[in-house]
Design goal:
327 residues; 23% strand; 4-stranded antiparallel β-sheet; alpha+beta; Glutamine Phosphoribosylpyrophosphate, subunit 1, domain 1; 8-stranded mixed β-sheet
Length: 327
């Protein structure tokens, strides 16, 4: 007797993105800036959605959406990234696909136009998970990714932020109040790390994150973004997660994986798991936000800052974009 095979019904595709969490309020984001940011988020969502609607993979949708945000000067990833203490931009990115559990990441790169695309190369073209600096640049060049001078990433806006933080640090040093263990306060930072999570018609999940890191960071500082399990996690039949915030807290809390673990071992819902992790983050003094989806198409976007650039698209093109806490 022949076995009867029942085809699995296609999943309803879903794409969720973020553009960073931080001191984002109607008072410090001009109407012009707000409109530009919403338009960039909308373009990223719609472009990624077109891929999913046409049967493309969640991985492709995530990389495409993040690449668009990396090219936008409004966010702290790619063009428009913050400067380190040497006045240079160092970039990190990671990607993970839920079907295979494979992942790739790059850190401290200075010339790769779209670091998220380099992270994919690490995953697909090497036996490794994470490449940094010269090794990552060599891989990118060999595979035809666009390399740009470091000046490409630097915008007048971020130059001003750098000068302000540098002056603040110099004053603190002069007053004898400087500490290498503390980042300078960064209320000037409005746009942040970018990320995306997606579910495709085949039921496959994917997640990715890209960043310029913390403003006025020490040279060589690497945050949570390229650390699989800290900022990025994707696992079929469970969840896909991308985070944004003060990376040291997310590394120590293994935030992205913690959400998956709570769902797997304690059987928490996506909403319960993400709220649980945000609460733990808050108790430890960490600030930031999370976007996450599960295999059933549920969405969670919690954060503990004044605002977070975020949005999703689903159900035949239903699009929603939010920035402030009360939206």
């Amino acid at each position: 007797m022949a076995l009867r095979v029942t085809a699995q019904a296609p999943k309803a595709p879903l794409l969720v993105i973020h553009g960073g969490a931080g001191n984002i309020t109607p008072q410090n984001l001009s109407p012009e800036e707000e409109l530009s940011c919403r338009m960039e988020l909308k373009r990223a969502l719609e472009t990624g959605w077109k891929i999913l609607q046409n049967g493309g993979s969640s991985l492709e949708a995530v990389v495409t959406a993040i690449s668009i945000l990396e090219d936008s000067p409004h966010f702290n990833a790619g063009k428009g990234s913050v400067l380190n203490r040497a006045g240079k931009v160092e970039l990190d990115a990671s990607i993970m696909e839920g079907k295979t559990g494979m992942a790739g990441a790059v850190a401290a790169v200075t010339r790769i136009k779209n670091p998220i695309q380099a992270a994919v190369l690490v995953m697909q073209k090497t036996p490794h998970v994470l490449l940094i600096g010269k090794g990552a640049h060599k891989l990118a060049k060999k595979n035809g990714l666009e390399l740009v001078p470091n000046s490409y990433f630097i915008t007048p806006k971020q130059k001003k932020v750098f000068q302000k933080l540098k002056s603040k640090a110099q004053k603190q040093k002069k007053d004898g109040r400087v500490s290498e263990r503390k980042f300078p306060s960064q209320p000037e930072i409005k746009g942040g790390t970018v990320g995306a999570v997606a579910l495709d018609k085949e039921g496959n999940l994917a997640a990715g994150t890209s960043t310029g890191g913390m403003a006025y960071k020490m040279q060589g500082r690497v945050g949570d973004t390229p650390i699989i399990g800290a900022s990025t996690w994707a696992e079929n039949n469970l969840c896909a997660v991308s985070t944004t915030g003060h990376g040291e807290y997310f590394i120590r809390g293994v935030v992205a994986y913690d959400i998956a673990a709570l769902m797997r071992y304690q059987k928490l819902s996506l909403s319960q798991a993400t709220q649980n992790v945000i609460q733990k983050l808050t108790e430890k003094g960490g600030q930031g936000g999370i976007i996450a989806i599960d295999s059933e198409g549920n969405i969670a976007m919690p954060f503990n800052t004044p605002g977070m650039f975020r949005g999703y698209i689903r159900n035949g093109g239903e699009l929603n974009i939010e920035i402030f806490a009360d939206e």
